[in-house]
Amino acid sequence: MQLSKASVRYARALYALGEEMKTSEEVYRDIHFLMDFFSEAKDVRYLMANPVIPPHIKKKAVRMIFEGHVNELTIRFMDLVIGKNRVTDIYGIVREYVDLYRKNKGIVRAVARTACPLSEEERAGFEAWLAQAFPDKEVELVNKVQPSLIGGFTLRVDGVYVDKSISGRLHSLRKEINVKVYQKK
Predict the structure, then answer these.
(1) Rounded to two decimals, what is the model's pTM?
(2) To pair with 23 at 20 to 30 A between CA atoms, which of 33, 86, 148, 166?
């Protein structure tokens, strides 16, 4: 996805201000909270994207919803984005901020998809393996449940994809059988 220059500028400005105020880690957590909130709250997303609703109402809504739940810098930043009519760029700004934060803090994000949630033992095993594979990085492990995998797991980390799922193995077998059937004719 191509980010607008404005998204990159806003994200860099937020990161620099967070570093200066020593709140970049809090803002990082806030950004994840906001992403989760907006992905669930369709009404609020509609409110923010609606061009008919004036910015002062959107700002008031942001304050009412998030005050006490996120850092004041995050709220002020949302006010700025709304005031500059950049709400449509918010996803790009957030995405760039997260990437910038991870890059500067030496964090690698690993997404493990499993058929059911990881147990504490399984999570510890993944974390130990990832710590060994990326010794100079902090690893942020995210577990996403995807029942269609049937069993096993898939792991995506730093552009590398590993598929050790039952559904992945079945897909491979299906392809292998199809190739052999077509080769005989």
Answers:
(1) 0.78
(2) 86
